[in-house]
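Chapter review: from sequence to fold.
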Amino acid sequence: MNIFIGSLPFRVKEEELKGFFEEYGEVASCRIITDKFSGRSKGYGFIEMPNDDQALKAIEELNGSEVDGRTIVVNKAEERKEGERRTGGGGNFRGGNNRGSGGNSRGGGYNRGGGDRRRDD
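The token string follows.
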């Protein structure tokens, strides 16, 4: 069973998180999600436990428990549907702070001229 853990303190490491769940049974994998640019924890992660009974016991007992002064959220992870994106915001269609502005439909955040537009005055 795949388990979601949220509201994690940013300083918690994967080995420490894994240790919390190993008290309830075998842990196949442990992953804390990090920001791809800074490498800093995003405050949530996932645990995979092969035995569903042990996983349910861990969820029941760890949900709402306190880790380093924070109350964590522990529940069964929902499977992501094909192509579903859970993060907010959009792709290139919004522009954002794209200095190059190449290819998106509204120009760019800083370069509002759209990059390769020409004036026909």
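Two observations follow directly from the output. The chain has a mean pLDDT of 82. DSSP finds two helices and six strands in the chain.
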